Amino acid sequence: WRRNISTDATHTSRVGCVSTVTIREVDVHDETALREWWEIGHAASAERPFDAWPAWEVSRVALPMPRTDQTVTLLVAYDEVPPMSTGAESVGGPAVGAAMIPERLLDNTHVVDVGVYVHPEHRRRGVGSLLVADVEQRARRRGRSAVTCSVFAPVDRESPGSLFATARGYPVASAEEIKLVDLAAAPGTWTALQADVDAALGGYSVIAFEGACPEERVQGFADVLSRFLGEIPTGDLDLESVTWTPERIRQGEQDRATAGRVNVTALALTPEREVCGFSDVRLSTADPRLGGVGGTLVLQEHRGHRLGLALKLATHRLVMATFPECTHIETGNAGVNAPMNAVNELMGYRVVERCLDVQKRLAPA
User: Fold this and answer.
1) What is the rounded CA–CA span in Å between residue 232 and residue 259?
2) Which distant-in-sequence residues (6+ apart) come within 8 Å of 225 by Cβ?
3) pLDDT in tens, 88-127
4) What Cα–Cα distance (Å) separates residue 345 from each residue in 65, 173, 292, 309, 320?
5) Residue 246, class by beta-carbon neighbours within 10 Å (0-12 exposed, 13-18 middle, 19+ buried)?
6) How far apart are CA 120 and CA 15, in angstroms?
7) Measuring CA to CA, which residue among 272, 270, 271, 252 is closest to residue 262?
8) N vs C: which end of the chain shows fewer Cβ within 10 Å?
């Protein structure tokens, strides 16, 4: 394929010799264009072992919503039918690929974490390569030095996404197992687990809440979040520590409420009532069928009291009580994170696929 830039927002390239692909930025307030973007991602994700793509009613509200911590650029690749004779105009064709480019504004501003999607019926035609080239050029122009992307693959083999990433020069920087817990089946064992936790806690305790963090805990929560990236396995990902403040936590709560999202959070407290750990489950109020664990951490100096299990039990039980429509919760853990893998196994999680975080360092523009 050959690539020719026409403007910052749109460019056209010949793919093979039968069609021309045009990439356009999506106006997120144009529901027709936004729906085309959403449908490409939905089709590209259909081969995953569970319905991981957000519902349309979630995306149509969340994606146009401005955020204070990042900007998001959406791209759609259209397959334009070429003219049949000199002087004729190309005929608009279907959407065949899409990309998402979120750019952090408050931390790790040197890296961009992207998503690239190609409709299964249009793979192996160069559409994905064209989108990746476009994404990389935009990242360079905006001063980003690394591009990362999460690709998914079955437990025992490669996938079109993992093979494509390798071919495009994106080695695996970190790998996780993606796991699901069935909230109809797993809770039968949780009463016994809670008894074990209660016997091991000593003077430690756990509080759980939906939405806003209690005011008296927000500074401690911010302090724990600021240690998160330094205490979890991140492999070779080019990530720097993040500083959290009470103001940033409150702004995030406000942004989620506006976008129709909610976090169910549990905090671990020391005998002195200081925050020493957290875990959360993230859901959409418009479609709460699938929750996702955002993060779990017990500070190293407070481990050994079964706090990780206590936190998970607290959030999962509150999710079931508050969002009875939720049927499954998803989480991901690196293979080297033995303590959290043990907690998830006790909770009833089962491995369903792999998540490969791939990364490419960019030469300067």
Assistant:
1) 28
2) 242, 244, 249, 278
3) 444 468 999 999 999 999 998 999 999 999 999 999 999 9
4) 37, 25, 16, 10, 19
5) middle
6) 16
7) 252
8) C
